[in-house]
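Input (structure):
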């Protein structure tokens, strides 16, 4: 890719090589989007090896397209080809089991195909982003469309349904105990597709959850997802700005997953969250794990965060208010916002995750 941690040879040839590699990788990710949307990975996982005609028939697509896509996947090493010297229509392709977990299995914690959908969504309103850079304005979340909101939801679905209430919250006994008690209530700020609310409700059978989001289509999706997962009787979703001081309710937990860095008024929202807490309740912020300070030699995760930030998170954050946090929200920024919102203490929860940090905000 364009940037690496290794010392780069600063020649035009070396940069050309890196840009070409970046183009191949970028198109590779976009082709993951096609494979995901068209069901190609699922068919290869279920019925492979397949030749282009078989894949086309099963997926309801055209053979010539299926053939080109399979060849591209093979040259990128995502699928394996059985006899590359066979005539083009007769070559058979398969998805190695380890790749199937990442590309085809929606329930696997390794499932990462939605990353492609998220990236496609993040770059979709590019002309608006260019205009915003010039004008110093923002690009509303809604302009990023279905791919962004659905990709975001599908990316987090597995861990929010399987890990949030079953592994992560049990690592914070004070919170875990409160959520398991009769009459417990939780709020999900910036709920998106609703999977955190649903995951909480499934993990704690007595818990009632209210999810809030500014985006209307996200609320519609969240309601449908809650019904699909059988928790619509205990999970309620409402289209609301979480910075709105009129937001009412009494909660044991206010949870916000990948939201604080997107808010135009994060301090206002944290102040609202603090006001909603019952005695002994707390706010849990799950957000991107970023280094303590800027370093050009950062790792791949922070480079990915900057990628989302320059195209999506910063423009949509600036459309929502003045904060302009961006995806690379450093621990110091969270502490500063929490302090300004009146929290007494910010404690990192003992949840070891390569990509996310969990901040307990205690009033
Ligand atoms: C990155 S998404 C995270 C969605 C969800 N929590 C998840 O983990 O999949 C950020 C969400 O915050 C919502 N959002 C942004 N500003 C908001 C605000 N002021 N009030 C309520 N929701 C907001 C967006 O609409 C979006 O759904």
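Output (sequence):
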């Amino acid at each position: 890719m364009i940037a690496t941690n290794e010392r780069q040879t600063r020649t035009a040839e070396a940069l050309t090589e890196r840009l070409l590699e970046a183009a191949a990788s970028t198109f590779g990710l976009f082709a993951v989007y096609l494979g995901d949307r068209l069901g190609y990975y699922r068919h290869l996982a279920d019925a492979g090896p397949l030749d282009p005609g078989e894949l086309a028939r099963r997926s309801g697509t055209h053979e010539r397209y299926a053939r080109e896509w399979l060849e591209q996947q093979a040259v990128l090493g995502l699928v394996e080809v059985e006899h590359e010297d066979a005539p083009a229509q007769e070559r058979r392709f398969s998805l190695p089991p380890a790749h199937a977990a990442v590309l085809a299995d929606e329930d696997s914690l390794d499932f990462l195909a939605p990353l492609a959908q998220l990236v496609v969504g993040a770059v979709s309103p590019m002309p608006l982003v260019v205009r915003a850079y010039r004008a110093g304005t923002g690009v509303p979340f809604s302009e990023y469309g279905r791919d962004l909101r659905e990709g975001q939801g599908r990316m987090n679905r597995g861990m929010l349904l399987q890990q949030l209430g079953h592994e992560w919250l049990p690592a914070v006994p004070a919170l875990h105990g409160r959520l398991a008690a009769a009459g417990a209530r939780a709020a999900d700020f910036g709920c998106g597709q609703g999977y955190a609310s649903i995951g909480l409700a499934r993990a704690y059978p007595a818990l009632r959850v209210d999810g809030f989001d500014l985006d209307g289509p996200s609320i519609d999706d969240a309601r449908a997802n809650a019904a699909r997962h059988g928790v619509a009787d205990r999970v309620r979703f409402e289209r609301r700005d979480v910075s709105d001081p009129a937001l009412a309710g009494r909660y044991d937990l206010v949870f916000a997953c990948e939201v604080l860095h997107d808010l135009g008024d994060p301090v206002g929202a944290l102040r609202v969250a603090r006001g909603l807490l019952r005695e002994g309740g707390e706010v849990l912020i799950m957000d991107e794990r970023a280094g303590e300070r800027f370093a050009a030699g950062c790792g791949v995760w922070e480079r990915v965060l900057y990628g989302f930030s320059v195209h999506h998170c910063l423009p949509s954050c600036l459309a929502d208010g003045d904060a302009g946090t961006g995806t690379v929200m450093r621990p110091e920024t969270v502490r500063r916002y929490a302090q300004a919102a009146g929290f007494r203490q910010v404690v990192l929860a003992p949840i070891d995750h390569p990509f996310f940090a969990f901040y307990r905000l205690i009033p």
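Notes: The first helix runs from residue 12 to 37. The longest strand covers residues 277-288.
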